[in-house]
Amino acid sequence: MGTRLLSMEGQPERADAYYRWLYALCGATQAPGSPLIHQHLWKLPMDNRWKEPFWHASMGGFIRSSGSKPCACGMCETPDILHHFKHCPVAAAVYGQLSGESIHAEKVPFLVWTGTPPQHVPKNIWLFICVSAVYAIDRGRRYMYKLKYHTEGPVPQTDTIVSKGKTIAVQTFWNLLHLHAKKMPQGKPEHATLPIIAWNTNTNSWFPKPPPGVQLVGSIH
């Protein structure tokens, strides 16, 4: 993206790009603390490679662009970042991990891309979740493209490609949280019942709460 967008002089340009993305994503024109979310993200104790998809997409760019190829999900002939991070089945699968009784599904993209935490979830913990979700979506997307366009031999059926892309994305999301749980700031007893990731008062550590079938391995290749 260049050093200008990282500088003080680039703040107006950065803000304009961010708000255009936010409006396209969920119709919002502004959000509390935005676009300061980017400053908070880069301070998270996570390797920058996990943060890059969030940064590039919300700045109007796109890393590892798929060029002119249709999305491997079979639902979009001319995919853009809005398709990949909102309408693609892989995105829906990851956002679905964040919805529940306390988080309505239709609000998840707004909460993720603005860094606005749901009720009772600490903001600094929610930012880990946001970064993990966006990276996971991008990884699932790239995996589908690999199966569709770079497979030696017969190309799998689209349903198979989508299913595997969703699985990779969901596993990546939960394992990123698992990988960074020890780097998260200390929680409080009232955080013991939080959805997605909770505070264990016995071990004084955060632990993800994935659905059945997701294996936490603590590493991502």
Please characterize this protein's 3D structure.
The chain has about 220 residues and is mostly helical. The protein contains 8 helices and 2 strands. The protein has a two-stranded antiparallel ribbon. A hairpin with a 4-residue loop joins β1 (about 195-200) and β2 (about 205-210).
Give a quick rundown of the structure:
By secondary structure, this protein is mainly alpha-helical. Helices cover about 50% and strands about 5% of the residues. The chain contains eight helices and two strands.
Top keywords for this entry?
221 residues, mainly alpha, two-stranded antiparallel sheet, 8 helices, 2 strands
Instruction: Determine the strand fraction and express it as a percent band.
Output: under 5%
Mean pLDDT: 84
The total of beta strands comes to 2
Binned, the helix content reads: 40-55%
Termini distance? 25 Å
Largest sheet: 2 strands, antiparallel
Radius of gyration, in angstroms, nearest whole number: 17 Å
Order of helices and strands: HHHHHHHHEE
Low-confidence stretches: 1-8
What is the helix tally?
A: 8
Order of strands, widest sheet: 1-2
Estimated structural class: mainly alpha
Spatial shape = globular
